[in-house]
Amino acid sequence: MVSATGPLTTKVASGTPYQLDNNQVQRASTALLKYMKSQQKELEETSTKKTLIGDNDDSSDEEDVPSVNEPVWLVMTTKKHVVDKNRLKPGKISIPHSLNSSPSLNICIITADPQRAFKDIVADPSFPSTLSSRITKVIGFTKLKQRYKSFESRRQLLSEHDVFLADDRIITRLAVTLGKTFYKSSKRPIPIRIEQVDKVDGKRVKKDTKKSSKDESNATFASPLVVAKEIEKALNSASVHLAPAATTALRIGTSSFTPDQLTENVKVVVDGLTGKFITKGWRNVKAIHIKGPTTMAMPIWLASELWVDETDVLENVEKDTNQIESEKGEKRKITAEEDVQQKTTKKSKKSKAPVDEDDTARNEKLRKQKAKALDDGTTSPSAKRK
């Protein structure tokens, strides 16, 4: 029931700019990174051995390399659900400061069959050696299903590699094959397009999937330079995993970033989300925070209104309240009339039972016997003997 007599909210002026406050993002990034580093330093001082929390598994002894590399997440809360179902194919947003720039990165690539065609591409002399040295495993989709059926084998595969890339032709089928071991971690496969794309007059030509062959010589993979460029693009992007919820979290940095690097990534990711992935864009954004794995969420943007469209705002609340009251009065009137009608119907149906003649005679006989007994009781025994 609406009890207010005035408007529920006040509309904002049209054309209100929606953008991040650079000073707020900088302050939040500085405070978050400072706290994460101080927290890690405290843990290292109190522990007897070196802490191995995070994603940095490098065994480097250099002093400038941090002993821990914890992820930094951007959490965007929306007013309405972003999508109506889970999207198994994640999106990508290119960021200026990559999360996968380590030269000792272990990359596993899952390809569509045949896998030999992709291995030949990686071994090609034109393929960048700086990238091929980081690709430690290439496996086809068929062999993936055959070799990694058990839970333990999937856990071992997950622990052996830092990043997983997958051919976008099979990315939606990997959820069943890899299971929750992968999809509950931060190492979900990132899609890459490595298929040969044929274009005519600048338009992509659709291929007949029924005529696809398993012959390696007819494999439809792109050239080594195109494949290398696609892999680099995926490594320098933030993955966007959308679900039917009002919260979306993206890994946008690490604790080894500087405040300026984290700030730049935040701006690019927010622009990418609101411009491509979030329905209604900024109008649907409720709040934006950044946080570490064990830290509080630092707010960097909060919405001043809780509605998405102007149609969601009730204007004539007083009129609506009077209408509701009148409707309730009519309902009460109808209910009272129905009660009277029901009572009248019950009275009309109720009738007296017919009087039986035998019962009347019996009652008359009992009355006479009672009167006679009373007369006999009042007469004294001496009077009867006389």
UniProtKB/TrEMBL annotation:
Q: Where is the composition biased (Polar residues)?
A: 377-386
User: What keywords tag this UniProt record?
Assistant: Ribonucleoprotein, Ribosomal protein
The biased composition feature labelled Acidic residues covers: 55-65
Asked if the Swiss-Prot or TrEMBL record annotates the protein with the keyword Ribonucleoprotein, the reply is yes
Recorded GO CC terms: ribosome
Biased composition of type Basic and acidic residues is found at 320-336
The answer to whether keyword Ribosomal protein applies is: yes
Region Disordered: start and end of each range? 44-66, 320-386
Q: Which domain of life is it from?
A: Eukaryota
Show the InterPro entries listed in the entry.
Answer: Ribosomal_uL1-like, Ribosomal_uL1/biogenesis, Ribosomal_uL1_3-a/b-sand
- The name this protein goes by in its record: Ribosomal protein L1p/L10e family-domain-containing protein
Q: Which organism is it from?
A: Talaromyces proteolyticus
